[in-house]
From TrEMBL:
The gene is dnaG. Residues 435-459 are annotated as: Disordered. It comes from Draconibacterium orientale. Its cofactor is Zn(2+). NCBIfam families: dnaG. The keyword DNA-binding applies. This is DNA primase.
Length: 651
């Protein structure tokens, strides 16, 4: 338990923009600050921090709260844990009783795994500096590679004693449960046989963003061919390889300050660069980059430079993964090192200023680099060259920004000796495919947003006799505009003859069959007038309503058809909608109808909820049950509609 006075001190110290700033790059926007939300994936910032109010709020995903809430959410902590986290950050002493055995067990498993990992790190580090074996072998290794002590301490490296179970025994003596030792992978357990996983290895702890140890990498120093040189912790509840970047905790501040991130491969590469003063560096630890890792970097900076070892073999294989980085809207550069050098050796050889200088002079734009590299291997081979072009174009086409894209096209045209126009055509082709994908996604998201509680249309200065809902307006607009257009062919169940169903027939049938025609007077008037005239020859709904004898009706129809207040979110929002609506009526019309229905059903449900409350208050239980059964039916219908809206896609 933490006493109130201490809690007050923590809350006073934990200034919101400072707390959030450890994880999110914030830019001033008036009195507030703005950044990319760490809780959902976004490319344009909607995450706002108000230092004056001491709160954060994301207008994308809705998350919000004070600095303690932020840490709870971000670090997945309980309230007291978040307070302790902040106390540590601001050097506020928290008086707490020693943990008993029982309390150790009670902590939830995740926290236990972190505690065990933290203990292991301290144990390994102490062993490296204080024990004979650690000093001779472990420290000897680092000294031989001329790492300075301050760097070793910064990365909390250590040494795991050789032998069967010296570490496991030490941990158990301290009261750490075997279960957690096994779950973190520190101890290997087979039946009644135990072994330290990392025995005799130099240890590199892997920290999460908040600086807590969640896993280890261990390097063996003997030249035994049978054992892997590097061994990593297995995946666990606290360690997911694809979501972790080595060095991110030590790099995050510098990444924000320099607005740039260097990517290398190994643990010692990261450490060597820190030693020459380059601190905005992380390692993917051997695997190719994952989207989660890219997003983690993008929270701090959109600029990433990938440093490659001198040997070209590995480069080509990892090129493929980079399209993904481009796709996230990041600026990718590449820095190849001279043959035979890795970042570790090269940084040591060149020293701080030499390395910095080399980086500035040799950093190449990724697309240029890729083009040149592939070009070398396709000389005199037209088929390979054609493949190369489409390969490079694929990389260009995923870049979200069109100006950047056109710069690349110009550059590629020069490098490849291909006409710009040809490249543009290729990009358009590729983009078209990607747009299809985007549109499918967008439709799914749209319907998710539709499920939000309904809001009435904003009153506008336009004279409108009756207030209509967005869905009603949209329904009427499509009904009037495309009433007589063909929708699709329908087969008669008995005669098996096909006939063409018009938009008007479909829309009217759908609402009548479900008894969902709006009670709104204006809506009803338009709806039933269309139905009355639908089968009349030469019925032109536009003419019929625009020249209507009833002036209010005429005005309404004019406004509706001139799309004065039907600039619906669908059309203004999704820039990717290039099709004209009349070309995709078969998709749009059922959608509009379903959105209308969903809205109506939600409103009916809200009414019934009130009725149930009232009946319950009156102790009229028969009525409660009756209303509840209606409610359940609507709920089912609602679910069906939401599902159909969610799964609908354009072909
Ligand atoms: Zn968000």
């Amino acid at each position: 338990m933490i006493d109130h006075a201490t809690i007050d001190r923590i809350i006073d110290a934990a200034e919101i923009s400072d707390v959030v700033g450890d994880f999110v790059t914030l830019r001033k926007r008036g009195v507030n600050m703005l950044g990319l939300c760490p809780f959902h994936n976004e490319k344009t910032p909607s995450f706002t921090v108000s230092p004056a109010k001491g709160i954060f709020k994301c207008f994308g995903c809705g998350k919000g709260g004070n600095s303690v809430n932020f840490i709870m959410e971000h670090e997945n902590l309980t309230y007291p844990e978040a307070l302790k986290w902040l106390a540590k950050k601001y050097n506020i002493e928290v008086q707490e009783e020693e943990e008993t055995e029982e309390q150790k067990q009670l902590k939830d498993s995740r926290e236990s795994l972190m505690i065990v990992s933290g203990f292991a790190q301290k144990y390994f580090t102490r062993y490296l500096w204080e024990e004979n074996e650690g000093r001779t072998i472990g420290l000897g290794y680092f000294r031989e590679r001329s790492f300075r002590d301050d760097i070793l301490k910064k990365f909390e490296v250590g040494f795991a004693p050789d032998g069967k179970t010296p570490f496991t025994e030490a941990a158990q003596r301290q009261g750490y449960k075997l279960d957690f030792l096994e779950k973190t992978g520190l101890t290997i357990k087979r039946d009644d046989w135990l072994r330290d996983r990392f025995a005799g290895r130099v240890m590199f702890p892997i920290h999460n963003l908040a600086g807590r140890v969640i896993a280890f990498g261990g390097r063996i120093l003997t030249n035994d061919k049978k054992t892997a040189k590097y061994l990593n912790s297995p995946e666990s509840d606290i360690y997911h390889k694809s979501r972790v970047l080595y060095g991110i905790y030590q790099a995050k501040r510098e990444m924000t300050r320099t607005d740039k991130c260097y990517l290398v491969e190994g643990y010692t590469d990261v450490m060597s660069l820190h030693q020459v003063g380059i601190e905005n560096v992380v390692a993917s630890s051997g695997t190719s980059l994952t989207p989660d890792q890219i997003r983690m970097v993008r929270r701090f900076t959109p600029n990433i430079t990938i440093i490659y070892d001198g040997d070209a073999a590995g480069i080509k294989a990892s090129l493929r993964g980079i399209d993904m980085v481009l796709e996230e809207g990041m600026n990718v550069k590449v820095l190849p090192l001279p043959d035979g050098e890795d970042p570790d050796s090269f940084a040591k050889k060149m020293g701080a200023s030499g390395f910095q200088e080399y980086m500035e002079q040799n950093e190449t734009d990724f697309i240029q680099f890729k083009t040149r590299l592939l070009l070398k291997s396709t000389e005199n081979d037209p088929v390979a060259k054609a493949r190369l072009i489409s390969d490079v174009i694929r990389s260009v086409s995923v870049i979200p920004d069109s100006i950047t894209r056109s710069v690349y096209i110009k550059e590629c045209s020069r490098l490849l000796g291909v006409d710009e126009e040809v490249l543009y055509t290729e990009v358009r082709k590729q983009k078209h495919q990607q747009t299809e994908e985007f549109r499918k996604r967008e439709f799914r998201e749209q319907s998710r947003r539709q499920a939000a509680p309904p809001q009435p249309v904003q009153e506008e200065p336009v004279a409108r006799p009756v207030r209509l809902l967005v869905e009603e307006l949209e329904f009427l607009r499509f009904l009037l505009k495309y009433c007589t257009s063909d929708l699709y062919e329908e087969e008669d169940e008995e005669t098996h003859e096909t006939r063409t169903l018009s938009v008007g027939e479909f829309m009217i049938d759908e609402l009548e069959a479900d008894e969902l025609v709006s009670e709104n007077a204006l809506f009803k008037k338009v709806f039933y007038e269309v139905r009355e005239n639908l089968y009349k020859e030469n019925f032109d709904p536009w003419k019929h309503f625009v020249y209507h004898p009833d002036a209010s009706m005429s005005k309404f129809a004019t406004d509706l058809l001139s799309e004065k207040y039907t600039e619906s979110k669908r059309w203004t929002k999704a820039g990717a909608f290039t099709e004209k609506e009349e070309d995709i009526l078969d998709v749009l019309i059922p959608r509009i109808v379903n959105e209308y229905k969903l809205r109506k059903i939600k409103m009916m449900m809200a009414e019934i909820e009130k009725a149930i409350d009232k009946a319950a208050a009156d102790n009229d239980f028969d009525r409660v049950i009756e209303e509840q059964s209606i409610y359940m039916n609507l709920k089912r219908a609602e679910k069906e509609l939401a599902k159909s809206l969610g799964s609908r896609t354009i072909n």
